[in-house]
Write a structure and sequence with these properties.
Helix content is about 30%, strand content about 15%. It is built from 8 helices and 9 strands. Helix 1 packs parallel to helix 8. It has one domain (about 5-220): Class I glutamine amidotransferase (GATase) domain (Rossmann fold). The relative contact order is 0.17. The strands form 2 sheets. Strands 3-2-1-4-5-9-8 form a 7-stranded mixed sheet. A two-stranded parallel ribbon has the order 6-7. It is α/β, with parallel strands linked by helices. It starts with a strand and ends with a helix. The protein has helices spanning about 25-40, 60-65, 70-75, 100-105, 110-120, 155-160, 170-180, 210-220; strands at about 5-10, 40-45, 80, 90-95, 125, 150, 180-185, 195, 200.
Length: about 220
């Protein structure tokens, strides 16, 4: 059996404004990363700029650092997004964290990669704010990637609950709906995954492992 290869793409944005630090939400990367490695997948971790990827300090504590040392280590030396090719992977996975809202939606290399994954029938997955990486993707037919697709993400209610709804550049749920997606949300902090063909999305940090397991099932 050929070894499966998964590309995980994380944010390089480390602040919301001059007073609020952000980055990747650690569990949304570390839990899926651990699941994929346990499956024997070849996992490549890329970021928008490459190098050390910022971790949202709110997602870090002594316990998480002890729990996921391997995942934290790999985040210190990520591959620049410009150096990866869609043809080398079976799936792409976008973890969240508020940093994703600032650099994933507008990155042309990421948009091109995801379009290639979509148009070759490969698995595309994202969790929490990770679907921000999907909103700028237009297929070669001119349609938004998410148009007509059932998806989920960090909801408007969850954004208000963490009191960052007035800090992000847009509300992710609203943007997905505006692009024609059929948005399916659940109550605050529900473990919730939506799959539409090869497109798999999870709602929040509580959904990281379930989203990864859906990817594993899709690849099997």
């Amino acid at each position: 059996m050929t070894q499966k290869a998964v590309l995980m793409v994380v944010t390089s944005a480390d602040k919301i404004d001059d007073t609020l630090r952000t980055g990747l939400w650690l569990s949304e990367f570390a839990e899926p990363y651990t699941e994929f490695v346990a499956q024997g997948y070849r996992v490549t971790v890329a970021s928008i700029k490459g190098g050390s990827a910022p971790i949202d300090p709110r997602s870090l504590d002594n316990e998480t650092e002890k729990r996921w040392p391997d995942a934290i280590a790999v985040l210190k030396d990520t591959v620049p997004i410009t150096q990866v090719r869609a043809e080398d992977f079976d799936a792409i996975f976008l973890p969240g964290g508020h940093g994703t809202m600032f650099d994933l939606p507008t990155n042309p290399e990421l948009q091109s990669l995801i379009r290639q994954f979509a148009e070759t029938g490969k698995v595309i997955a994202a969790v929490c704010h990770g679907p921000a990486g999907l909103v700028g993707v237009t297929l070669t037919n001119g349609e938004p990637l998410v148009k007509g697709k059932r998806v989920t993400s960090f909801t408007n209610d969850e954004e208000r609950a963490v009191q960052l709804d007035d800090k992000v550049p847009f509300l992710l749920e609203d943007r997905l709906r505006e692009l024609g997606a059929a948005f399916i949300g659940q109550p605050l902090w529900s473990d919730h995954v939506v799959q539409d063909g090869n497109l798999i999305t999870g709602q929040n940090p509580q959904s990281g492992i379930s989203t990864a397991k859906a990817v594993i099932k899709a690849l099997s």
